[in-house]
Amino acid sequence: MSEKDYQSSVKKLRKDFTADLLAAGNLDDLEALDNKYLGRKTGLLNNVLKTLKDLDVEQKKVLGPLANELRDYMEKALESKREELKELLWNEQSEKEKIDLTLPLVKDEKGHYHPNTIVQREIENLFAQMGFLVLDGPELESEFYNFDGLNVPATHPAREDQDTFWLDNGLLLRSQTSSVQVRAMRKYGAPLRCIVPGRVFRNENVDASHDHTFYQLEGMMVGKEVSVANLIAMMKTLLSVVFGNKDIKVRLRPGYFPFVEPGFELDMQCTLCHGAGCPVCKQSGWIEVLPCGMIHPNVLKAGGLNSDEYVGFAFGLGLTRLVMLKYNIDNIRLLQSGDSRFLNQF
Amino acid sequence: MLISLNILKKFVDLPEELSALEIANLLTMKTMEVEGVEKLGEYWEKIVIGQIISVENHPQADRLRVCQVDVGKGDLLNIVCGGINLSPDMLVAVAPVGAKVLWHGTEEAVLEKTKIRGVESEGMICAASEIALGNLFPSGDEREILDLTALAWEKGKAIKDYLSNDTLIEVDNKSINHRPDLWGHYGIARELSAILHQPLKFYSAFCDMELGVNTKDEERLTIDRNLCDHYLAMKIKNVSDLPSPLWLKQALSDLGMKSISALVDIGNYVMAECGQPLHVFDASAVENEKITVRAATEDEKFIGLDGGEYILHHGEIVIADEEKVLALAGILGGADSAFNHKTKEVILEAAHFPADKIRKASMNLSLRTDASMRYEKSLDPVNVLWGARRFWQLVKEIFPAAEVEWINRFSSYDESIKEIKVAVSEFARVSGVDLSRNEIENILTSLGFVVAAQDKKHKDLLTVSVPTWRATKDINLPIDLVEEVLRIYGYDNIALRYPQAQLNPPVALPFLDLRNKILDHLVLHHNLFEVYNYSFLKLDSIKKLGIDNLSKYIYLLNPVDKTRPVLRDDLIYNLLENLSENEKHQNKLGFFEIGRVFRKSEKDIYDLEPGSTERLPYQHQHLGVVLADEEENLLHRMQSLSESLFQFLGKNYIIEECETAPNYFHSSQVRQIVAYDENQEKIILGYYGLLSPMLRDSFEIALPAAYLNVDLDLLSRLEKTEKRYQAISKYPAIELDMSVLIARGVAWADLCDFIKEKTEMLKKIDLVDVYRTSEWDNDDLHSLTLRLSYQSDIETLQLDQVNQWHEEIKASVVKHFKAVLR
Ligand SMILES: [Zn+2]
Known about the structure:
- The complex is a heterodimer.
- Chain A is α+β, with helices and mostly antiparallel strands.
- Chain A folds into two domains: 3-97, no CATH class; 115-343, 2-Layer Sandwich (BirA Bifunctional Protein, domain 2), CATH 3.30.930.
- In chain A, 43% of the residues lie in helices and 17% in strands.
- A seven-stranded mixed sheet of chain A has the order 1-4-5-9-8-7-6, sandwiched between helices. In chain A, strands 2-3 form a two-stranded antiparallel sheet.
- In chain A, α1 (3-23) packs antiparallel against α3 (44-52), α1 (3-23) runs parallel beside α4 and α2 packs antiparallel against α4.
- The model of chain A has no long low-confidence stretch (mean pLDDT 89).
- Chain B has 20 helices and 41 strands.
- A seven-stranded mixed sheet of chain B has the order 27-30-33-37-36-35-34, sandwiched between helices. In chain B, strands 5-4-3-6-11 form a five-stranded antiparallel sheet, with no helix packed on it.
- In chain B, α4 crosses α5 (262-274), α9 (424-431) packs across α12 (478-489) and α13 packs across α16.
- By secondary structure, chain B is of the alpha+beta class.
- In chain B, a hairpin with a 3-residue loop joins β20 and β21 (332-333).
- Chain B folds into six domains: 2-40 and 167-201, 2-Layer Sandwich (Phenylalanyl-tRNA Synthetase, Chain B, domain 1); 48-161, CATH 2.40.50.140; 206-411, Phenylalanyl-tRNA Synthetase, Chain B, domain 3 (3-Layer(bba) Sandwich), CATH 3.50.40; 418-489, Phenylalanyl-tRNA Synthetase, Chain B, domain 1 (2-Layer Sandwich), CATH 3.30.56.10; 510-717, Bira Bifunctional Protein, Domain 2 (BirA Bifunctional Protein, domain 2, 2-Layer Sandwich), CATH 3.30.930; 734-821, Alpha-Beta Plaits, CATH 3.30.70.
- Classes of the chains: A alpha+beta, B alpha+beta.
- Zinc ion binds at residues 270, 272-273, 277-278, 280-281, 285 of chain A.
- Zinc ion (ZN) binds next to loops of chain A.
């Protein structure tokens, strides 16, 4: 083979390869092409290279690089064509695998917490982080803890009110979680800070916003330096967390409850109208959320504490009401209905 | 209670720029809850007085008349009217075009010029109710128009020139239950005077102070001092059944009270003003003009001026003469001695009765009146004098010829002044705000407290005298004075501050921890719904469970729902109701509840009273889980739920055959969960099992259902097992399966125990499959596929060796349990 023949066969190989490459439509074609030209034993390029050995040394020096150049060219061209085809393939595939993301799940099999539990645990966590004990107390209570111990003596009108459930054993169903105040003070002494979430009972006429069974969350803090200013701070924090860390404005106004002195009603600024007045807040701009106050000295005494030494605040959050307010639940009876269509919304 | 702004203004000057709403808001923020503010006179704003000139029949309508009405300055209006009492010269209230009226007393409308059945009408001649004066001018027939002729008002003038335009503030009664002084206008005026720094006028300025209340006279009173500690009776002659002057009528009507007769009205008005209930007897009905205050005798009868007949048997306090009961003290006057149109002489009663006795009587008789409502708040006994003096002042004004014939007074109340000592620093300690001695003194003084001069030795101490109107109930302790000062100072002026607190070591709260874990595990892992159910049970449901002994339950004395009179002793009842309710729209159900159940027979840890060894009845927190599903091995699902829960909670437990299971379970498909306490005492924590088909039937539950019940109080008292790390074997495990046809009576646990004994290299046995076919039913067999996992901690096991063990185990199972290999 002459030098010229060699050069022209390299040229022809390049031309053929380029034409074949252009025609290759998929990765399989490309692999075949790779084999055809660059195959170790029968590849066309190898065949051409084999003819090189017939030439003399000087010619080899000149012509050798030609074939190597062609190999480089072929390898690069194949690689870039390969990338191109892969991308094409992936695009096709992902187009094929496209799914409707708005399609609903076939069946909702998740479990659900009761909405009261959700809010209650949120508040429990909040207070636990501030070092409050989360306590529990009996629902079936004695007159002492529900009334006498809370500065509601036997002659007090609240004792005769029809809204306490009395039992055939002379005991009662607690009408407020405040019944745990004296128990907590006697058990843990002072200083003390605790909350008591729980079920309470009132013999009330049932309607969309009143039920005979509902939940309260009692809280108290007793120490040597506990003030109204502290109470305001804690209540503002509580409401701000429950209502999604918004800055909730609160106000205290006089409210009378025998177990606190001074006693307050705590209002929060209406979150719907921001105080401008709307139907929810009856145009007042404020929503009554909880009664609270400074623990009456007689209650501290009943709790076994020295009322000259200790002061404290207490509050009685209407947990059920707060849950209804938070989730916009318009009928209190749903909460105890056990209806899965209600519960699966939480 | 309704408060008149006009009456308040008599006692305290209210700044002009302050609106009624602002006053209401101040009261809400510092004294009591205001429910609303109502401006009266809205409907008489444009009403004028007119004189009817002529009345003619309407040409088209029998019932209508056409009137010419002179509304002053010679203006004549043509008005079509349906009134039945129209006559020429009559003075009437005319609503001209543009005025707002109330059709039929309720429906608001603005008058327009209109044609009524073809005749033009330029306004309306009003009935009292059409301009919101129905209370002031009551009429028997709604077709009667308001006849003002008797009042001789000048035609052309506006009605509002003759009537007061009052604004009413409605107070939430509950917010002043503890404040006897606020049950009259004067007390509220006192609050406003303190709030607004405006002087309060002395009530004596409105009273006849010459009235000789201490006059010694013939003894006419016989008073039981336990039933009454202040009684004033005063005979007034030369009075009559005169109607009240318009101002008085209107004042009462504005406050929602009926006008009866001047003398009775004065009594009611004085009560509204100063809070002291008064009663007027017809003197001729009081035998010998002698009055006794005593307890009612058993079954004593009394006819009230409301016409009701009352039989007294709780020793109610009565006012009586020598023959009969004249009045139910503090509640209701009697029919026999009531003021009537023939009355010429009266006896006024101003008295003070004990609050608890009046309250009890009023409750026993279901009779609440304006008087009883006030007495039960613990009124100030001194107020008796003010009531009588103010009454006499008004009587003199309306009956110039009236004379007091005699006065008798009895008093035994404690006249000493209540004194409270409080440290100045206490105000800052409770509020968190520094208040000066001066500020404190000013506020207390403005409310009628008297602060003694500073004591040189105890500079920090205030000695405060409590005014009589605050001394009967709510002011007893230093803290009560702190409240007085803070509320007037303004709670709004107290800036929030976070407390400084002592850090305490944590207290273990095992139930809370348990509850949180159970909630998360059952909701997140087992996809159950948490429900809350009532604590009350239907007797019906109990009977459905086949329980006849209804005496073991705790009963409510006053159930809200008579069909649910007992406390639940198990969570199952309501959970079953949940199932049957939800089955209608779902066919795979899983609910759980955590709540207290109550048992009469057992005692809890809670004491009855401090220091008492007596305990409250059992009221443990329970967990109840129900599953309902078509799936065949529901019991297995409940078992695996129970086991995974107990493992998650880290509590040791044993599942075993039941000794005595509750009878709502399927008797052969129930297990009990037990544990041993630190004294190795066996404790039954709960049960799980399939519910009996009979029970499902009576609760109308179609799906098979399983129930798990755990006593969480018992569980929370058990020690937690601590997890320990086990070294992970470096050598691979070899797993081999075996399938055996075996009697269904062979317990899985027994089978496992038997196999495990064979070699210690056996680390785990899993059940891979359970298979049954009807062919085996006769012999009661089933096929179990077990996966045995062999592993060593010290070397790699050889397959040959393991195969040999496995074959030996197979052979011994076959032999021991009479099983067949498959
Ligand atoms: Zn609003």
